[in-house]
Amino acid sequence: MSDILVLHGPNMNLLGLREPHIYGKTTLAEVNARLQALAAQHGATLRIIQSNHEGVLVDAIQDAAGWAQGILINPAGLTYSGYSIRDAIAGVAIPAVEVHISNIFAREAFRALSVIAPVCKGQICGFGVQSYLLGLLALLDSWRESS
Amino acid sequence: MSDILVLHGPNMNLLGLREPHIYGKTTLAEVNARLQALAAQHGATLRIIQSNHEGVLVDAIQDAAGWAQGILINPAGLTYSGYSIRDAIAGVAIPAVEVHISNIFAREAFRALSVIAPVCKGQICGFGVQSYLLGLLALLDSWRESS
Amino acid sequence: MSDILVLHGPNMNLLGLREPHIYGKTTLAEVNARLQALAAQHGATLRIIQSNHEGVLVDAIQDAAGWAQGILINPAGLTYSGYSIRDAIAGVAIPAVEVHISNIFAREAFRALSVIAPVCKGQICGFGVQSYLLGLLALLDSWRESS
Amino acid sequence: MSDILVLHGPNMNLLGLREPHIYGKTTLAEVNARLQALAAQHGATLRIIQSNHEGVLVDAIQDAAGWAQGILINPAGLTYSGYSIRDAIAGVAIPAVEVHISNIFAREAFRALSVIAPVCKGQICGFGVQSYLLGLLALLDSWRESS
Amino acid sequence: MSDILVLHGPNMNLLGLREPHIYGKTTLAEVNARLQALAAQHGATLRIIQSNHEGVLVDAIQDAAGWAQGILINPAGLTYSGYSIRDAIAGVAIPAVEVHISNIFAREAFRALSVIAPVCKGQICGFGVQSYLLGLLALLDSWRESS
Amino acid sequence: MSDILVLHGPNMNLLGLREPHIYGKTTLAEVNARLQALAAQHGATLRIIQSNHEGVLVDAIQDAAGWAQGILINPAGLTYSGYSIRDAIAGVAIPAVEVHISNIFAREAFRALSVIAPVCKGQICGFGVQSYLLGLLALLDSWRESS
Amino acid sequence: MSDILVLHGPNMNLLGLREPHIYGKTTLAEVNARLQALAAQHGATLRIIQSNHEGVLVDAIQDAAGWAQGILINPAGLTYSGYSIRDAIAGVAIPAVEVHISNIFAREAFRALSVIAPVCKGQICGFGVQSYLLGLLALLDSWRESS
Amino acid sequence: MSDILVLHGPNMNLLGLREPHIYGKTTLAEVNARLQALAAQHGATLRIIQSNHEGVLVDAIQDAAGWAQGILINPAGLTYSGYSIRDAIAGVAIPAVEVHISNIFAREAFRALSVIAPVCKGQICGFGVQSYLLGLLALLDSWRESS
Amino acid sequence: MSDILVLHGPNMNLLGLREPHIYGKTTLAEVNARLQALAAQHGATLRIIQSNHEGVLVDAIQDAAGWAQGILINPAGLTYSGYSIRDAIAGVAIPAVEVHISNIFAREAFRALSVIAPVCKGQICGFGVQSYLLGLLALLDSWRESS
Amino acid sequence: MSDILVLHGPNMNLLGLREPHIYGKTTLAEVNARLQALAAQHGATLRIIQSNHEGVLVDAIQDAAGWAQGILINPAGLTYSGYSIRDAIAGVAIPAVEVHISNIFAREAFRALSVIAPVCKGQICGFGVQSYLLGLLALLDSWRESS
Amino acid sequence: MSDILVLHGPNMNLLGLREPHIYGKTTLAEVNARLQALAAQHGATLRIIQSNHEGVLVDAIQDAAGWAQGILINPAGLTYSGYSIRDAIAGVAIPAVEVHISNIFAREAFRALSVIAPVCKGQICGFGVQSYLLGLLALLDSWRESS
Amino acid sequence: MSDILVLHGPNMNLLGLREPHIYGKTTLAEVNARLQALAAQHGATLRIIQSNHEGVLVDAIQDAAGWAQGILINPAGLTYSGYSIRDAIAGVAIPAVEVHISNIFAREAFRALSVIAPVCKGQICGFGVQSYLLGLLALLDSWRESS
Description:
Strand order of the largest sheet of chain A: 2-1-3-4-5
Oligomer: homododecamer
CATH class of chain A: Alpha Beta
Shape of chain A: globular
Radius of gyration of chain A: 14 Å
Number of domains of chain A: 1
Helix content of chain A: 25-40%
Largest interface: B-C, 27 and 28 residues
């Protein structure tokens, strides 16, 4: 798995700039840099998209059918109503991993009810920025083989 | 009713290309061709839009107020959270028909709870591509008069 | 599909005679005549039964196993508690289409919860008498092939 | 209101013979006699039907459209699933009164949820056999005028 | 049963003056006059209290333990939260009848959930002012014996 | 206990003929033969009725009050809405055993909610045709004494 | 609209004296003074009542039918069970505005479920003492005309 | 803690006189005497109020802010809808203890859902009259120090 | 607070043109003009955006972090599923006020469940176009100080 | 099937000694003796374990994978929370039969919701000690063949 | 009542060592010492068991049938799923008192739903370590007689 | 973080031996070996415990307070009722990570409702055996620093 689509949902561009008591101080650019570095270590290539528009994310998932072997997604605010993202992931049949920075089980009750997770391979939440890195590892062939 | 807006919701552009065991093998282009042919038989004209963006669909419904006498819509993944589409249909007061390719009563429980259907004239589901054709017939004056 | 069983549930014999503001003015006899005419156009034969007794409808479905290729049913008041009809349709394994004259999504909340639809091929509702005609088309081979 | 249909639902023929600690010792024949006597006092005529078959009750309600000015009904076990009776009463648009011998609010929780009461004029429960008599009074013109 | 307490809950003093499309045009004074007349026919005496204060109603129920053989109550807006009235009725152990002018099953869903009815002898609703008269009859010995 | 009523609910006459992957290949006639044989071994007599009509089953239960010491019933599709059957069993006060061929806990959620079981002596489900035989044993005196 | 009834529900007399972290430091007297000043600016007159007794509030609403053109109410703890206040407002048919000092959507879940708001003209919450002032503006004719 | 307010909710004045199978035979006067005796042993003073009016109880709680160090309350029928009492206790910020004579977990389901307990220090139920005595001990400083 | 972002959600561009029985006859342009006039009176500046696209609204909220001191938002159809808007408002930590033209408590039940209100300062609904004006006042410093 | 594991859950060692009005007077030793006798008649061997520890029961089920062809289990108090037992039975894939002495449908509502039954072959309840014997028969090959 | 079993559920051995902001600083040893001292004052004897194993607690309750007149139990984490403890207490029929250190009504919603309390004599919660002492008093004969 | 407790809940000892279509073919020994290898790479030490007894797991968590800096736990069947494990983790305040081999969002609905996750740092599910390895990484300091 050498080509991976990374999707950041709505408001993730604010990461590190807003509400650091919940989401930490690392910016999205830093997250992306760390993801790129980890990917490079494993010979993988990332395309990274952040959007506040559900339609853009759906478009990206559909487009991934032509080139990606994996999807790493933090649906953010669309986690609870993003049925179109759900259907897109199910439609392209590319292994997807859902990640969340905070522990969705320890916040408002509605946040634990992801409508997207059921069509993903798995979910990782609660580890701050490392949720992304762990999620990427979960997709990488080289790590899966060596681990 | 000679001018009809046909709306395909998110991921419907994948029709026939993905998950054929659920949605069949007919592509969206073929669906559109069959819809156009049926419309032509009845002297009706169709404008067809597919979008993965809820806003685009809302824009189209609003725009239809100027020219269309009917709306045929498969809201797809927006069926369960598309309150803006619901409000748009109610707002323009053009008769709308909701269609689904699969039987929404025979899948996951959440799929039976359309938030859009209550403001439509009716709903048709479960007949594959023919759900669209039947939905178009339901809107066509010539058929309604002759049938 | 040339032999089709048409079932009208409880109170459908009042059609056109009572509550025309909800159900319209067409009588059941007229509905049947229009269904017969449409069937004739497609070379199909209909047997039509109306009953206020769930058992009679179950008997008819069972009996259809010997001769019918399709079932068109408006379960009416039994839509919400007719588990025996559900089991009968599932048992005989003949394609069935559920129809409703009114839009079940736009009335009392309990009316949207059909217990029969999950074992049908599909459902059509909201188009008045034309729900029946559209439902019949959905079953007819000749139309399915030509459409 | 001089012609009234009285309907006793399933198992009411056992009245007075079974479970007297719940339903009392008066038999259905005695109930009917008291109803007839009260009706006679007010110059009204009753037709009384008891059936364990929901369809028979629906038929009777439909038939009443031709001659009755009121319906007095104890749906018994059909109170909680008798949607067809509900639709029949709504369909014929004859004033109906639902009665119960026991207090449906003081028994199992499901017994308080009548699906028929919403389309009746009113409901009376808890007064034993006198629930019937009070229900009849509620329908009688002469009493309504004098009371 | 010759001494009966009649209780009218909050806002019943507006009867006939407000919302006549729901509650009719008869005033509370007229209701009380009709109740008094009916009681007089049967040799019974009524004490009638209307209050917008739950505590006043509870006090009255407790006081009734010293003189009344029956309670006729329309709890009105306290029907859904009047647990203290419920406990008072259960405490004094005087037969009580709950009445409502409108059909509580045919209005907002919360109106069907009386917390008081389970400790009453029975409930009567939907017959307008006559709900009161029927409720009084249900308490009167002379009527019970003769009916 | 030598006289037992055996009741088969709606669609049980299709047993062995339809959906054998769920219900097996044994026909109802064969079930009845095996029940008769087992009864004969224990000196018991069976009367067996199958009906798709709830009213017929209620009639049969009431009639059993005159001659039967036990009831063996598979309510089938009426399990979830057969309140009249429930009331009939409670009314005649004959020990009843509810049986199901399939494991009602392992199918759709609604199938586990029997409204009849609470008034039965017990319930047996999941053992195919042997659910009937085990249910019959549970009613037979000779077996109860020797086991 | 020149005569307005202002109602403060239970415990509002503690305003500014207790729990200032939730309700602020302004006392009820100060609130009333500010309301009076604003009313005077618009040529309106206020009658202000605070009570811990639901019945007193209901009495006041009924009395308002004779003189008031608007009601401004903070039902406080009665927001969730004050059905009698609800019925009183509906009964007198005077435009009412419900206000809350705190944001009822951001506290315990039960606080968002007002039983009174459905019969009010509108609701304002979350602006501290200014919720009252905004609510008064919403009722004042002069402001409505000029704004 | 030497000054304590004791509040008895609606119908508690009937204690010992009504429903002794649930609440025992001790009268409220006897309860109060035993409370006074226990308080005297610990050098504490009690003010005791019983009321059937929620407003009176709220007034008393507010008044307690000037003199009491603890509140002992049996809200009785107001336990389930007494949001104003809840807010009053939270407002005065005096430690309160809720007591119930019967075990609220072992009666009707609604009785376990106290809306007042969340703002109390604790709750004691099920010990008959001794629930009061235990509740008083829980408030008394001298006992808390010695125990 | 002199710079305020005003956001109109999906379909608000139809205001005054469609469904005037619900939303009135004032157009969005007129609403904006009145808002601008009121802002000018208080020395405030408004930037006004209407969009049918949730992403556009999220973008605007994020952008406001650089210049606005307040947000006035009518989320319209996104009120019930706009978690991304919710997160954006929480993220930028600018005081926001949610407004609705109609009384959301008096329409379909789902409309009362705003997912955005919990992160707003407050909510105003039911006053037609004046809901906007009141909401603007709630944000304006000069008014807050003078009122 | 000649080797069967019999498991008695928590408190079953009290059988016959406690609460005989619910569970009867037969002791667990007597139950075991009767089970052994019945097994012996059919040439089967039983290993019987009673434990109040869920872990012990899970261990026993796992161990059974090496020698047993069937499991007869009364999970008792673990019926409603014993997910580990459920997983163990599903894991070893040995046919299991769940039995209960009392009719779980006729007691507290929570008792009807077995979390273990869905992975069992079937369930038998309500027949006292004979529930065990019937459950054993359901597992025995010799009986299945002859019956 | 001179012999009492005291049971501490899972994690109570951490009392005073962990989470003192919730549970205080008193250790379990100190609690036990205080309980022993109080018991000694009243001439009672305690046997005290703490276990993290539900089975051990069930064993202890069963064993208590031979010697104890009362049970004092803090089920801790088993409060919400300890059906086996519930059945054990019901089985031995020894008066039991459930205690909790914290106020279970003021924490997570699930903590208020004890499955054990319904079979206990009563429950005490919220008084820290004194919940135990009050619970012991509730069981002691000498105190009950003198109080 | 160099000392980590690894806990495997009930039935995990069957891993790789049972239901490989759900859980894969890797045995628990192999999982442990891979965990040990990964830990060794990072200079960490593991103590690994598998138990079918909740009490044993609670004991282990408590014991970890003396030596461990992290807990890696797959609660398995105790995920849904293991409140004692939850309280133990909260009590010892050691960072814990919950892992599941399968995607708990894509199986039976009850499996998504972990009662333990809210007190953990985070959760990882769906990646087969690699869920464990990813969970271990999430706890390891050296990886967190380098990643």
